[in-house]
Amino acid sequence: MKVGDALPPLEIPVTRTLIVAGAIASRDYQDVHHDAELARAKGSPDVFMNILTTNGLVGRYVTDHLGPHAVLRKVAIRLGAPNYPGDTMTLTGTVTAVDGDTAEIRIVGANRIGHHVTGTVTVTLGAPA
C-alpha cells in the first residue's frame, strides 16, 4: 500500500430497514431515524441515517478491503448531506499517508444530494498470526 492508492468504490443501497436497524443497534432512539411522520414534522422529508451507522459502514469499508488483520485505530468523520431511504451511498477511499504498518485513508461517501460523509481512517495493517 502506498500514498495515492485508491480503494475500490463500494455502493451501499440505503434502505429504510438499514436506517432503522442501524439506529436501533446503536441505541439511537431519536424519532428522526425511525418515524417518517415525526421526521417530516421536524422538517425532514423522511427518516435519515444516524452518524453511528455511517461510522460502522466506513469502518466496514476499510476493513473489508484490507482484510481481517487490519485494525482500525482512529475513525474521524463528519456528516454532510443526509442519507434517506432510496439513496445509494458510494464510499471511496484514497491512501494519504503510510508510516510502517500504519496507513491513513481519506474517505468520502456520496449520495444523490452530495457528500454524506467525509473524513479519515487510521488503520494498522497487521500480519497474519
Task: Explain how this protein is built.
With about 130 residues, the chain is α+β, with helices and mostly antiparallel strands. The mean pLDDT is about 95. The two termini are about 20 Å apart. A hairpin with a 4-residue loop joins strand 4 and strand 5 (about 115-125). About 25% of the residues lie in helices and about 40% in strands. Strands 1-3-4-5-2 form a 5-stranded antiparallel β-sheet, with helices on one face.
Question: In terms of topology, how is this protein built?
Answer:
Elements: E1 6-13, H1 16-25, H2 36-41, H3 51-66, E2 70-79, E3 88-99, E4 102-110, E5 115-125
Antiparallel strand pairs: 1-3, 2-5, 3-4, 4-5
Features:
129 residues, alpha+beta
Order of helices and strands: EHHHEEEE
Molecular shape: elongated
Whole-number mean pLDDT: 94
Low-confidence stretches: none
Mind describing the biggest β-sheet? 5 strands, antiparallel
| % residues in beta strands | 35-45%
- How far is it from the N-terminal to the C-terminal residue, by CA? 20 Å
The level of helicity is 10-25%
Can you list the strand order of the major beta sheet?
A: 1-3-4-5-2
DSSP helical segment count? 3
**What class do helices, strands and sheet pairing give?**
alpha+beta
Q: What's the gyration radius in Å? A: 16 Å
Number of strands: 5
Short description, anyone?
This protein is 25% helix and 39% strand. It is an alpha+beta fold and 129 residues long. It starts with 5 loop residues before the first strand and ends with a strand.
